[in-house]
Amino acid sequence: MTECTVFVCKDPNNPVAAAKFGLDEDGQGHFVYGARFTSSTDDAFSFDPINLPLTTQRLMVPVHRDGSFGVLSDAGPNTWGQRLTISICKQAKKPVPITPVDWVLSSFHYGAGCFAFSRSPNEAPSPTIIPVSLDELDARFIKAIDNLDKEIDPYILRLVLPGASLGGVRPKTVVMHDGYEHIAKFNKQDDLFDVSTVEYASMRLAYLAKIEVPDFEQLVIAGRPALLVKRFDRTDNGHRIHYISAHSLLNIGALSNDQREYQTNFSYAGIAEITRPFNPFAVADSHELFRRMVFNILIGNVDDHLRNHGFLMAENNQYRLSPAFDLLPHIGASYMPQSIGVGAFGAASTMMNALSQCRRFFLEDKTAKEIISEVKEAVSNWRQIFRESGVSENDIHLLASCFTAADAAETASNISRGS
Asked: Which residues form the HipA-like C-terminal domain (predicted)?
């Protein structure tokens, strides 16, 4: 059995040994909460109220289609973090992580939520790298993230290492800014457009569409555009908030041949419904999810997969929908469906489909149509917002096909005003 201890680090200076996670010889995940943790009335909570209920019994950890282990993998690296970790291991001539346990043990404890990992309950994890100030990111940092196959000197290594805990495909790291942890996201060299600036503009559109987003800023570091996002899984005093992705909660297995799951639980409505037993704000969060679904359709964000939606634990072990993130139009959106279900017609990216199951979001047709109108009005000004945000005319032209529905809304508005 390959195993590790899971620590809850709500207060990073006082980690609490809470559970053991291990893999047997067949690669099956096993999990058990610690007796001291479960008996604590102040600290105990279920890591995943659906798949890992709070109990003293040993549990099987659900293995997802992508080989991840639910909420435990939420706290570990994927794509970018794994690339960076592999590079660091090779340079240090250390073994590259192989199993999910290896991966979480190799992280630098800056992943999503409040978990950290150690080989033993007697070895409390502590961040070996402290996030630097935003001001310390410079041209050498940019060169390092562009050339992960090259040796990184120790000074620059401490700038990039916190990013090894993170997921997503974009180069990123964790920095301190105005006393808070932020994630700094950068363009890749092979990007087809200025992704950081376009994401900044898309976040502005989302805010105008009355969608909850974290604080964000636009930056240029050594000539490279960047997006700075304040972490929403951190408190004002630096404590950490438990986070779980919709991907982990829903635990979707293999899809049926007819992909009926896109009409049921593998969908926005499925996300809205899964937390209702432990979400006192289920109605408001369902309305917010409907608004985000409409927004993603209108901007051509077809990368709206389940990992790009999540929940934060609130008081009394209840959950709230997290602020929106990774909002970005995608080239090819005009002929692609959404990544998850929208309504009765599966993942089809249409307003008719969005309305088809609006009651699953606690919405009557009239209110759902009002939300659609509000989002359309905000997104119809996308060209102006993108220009104000610094998006180039070439990129606006390149992305125009993503906003077909939004442009149609603007045309209809102009006609109604007689312009």
From this structure: 165-382
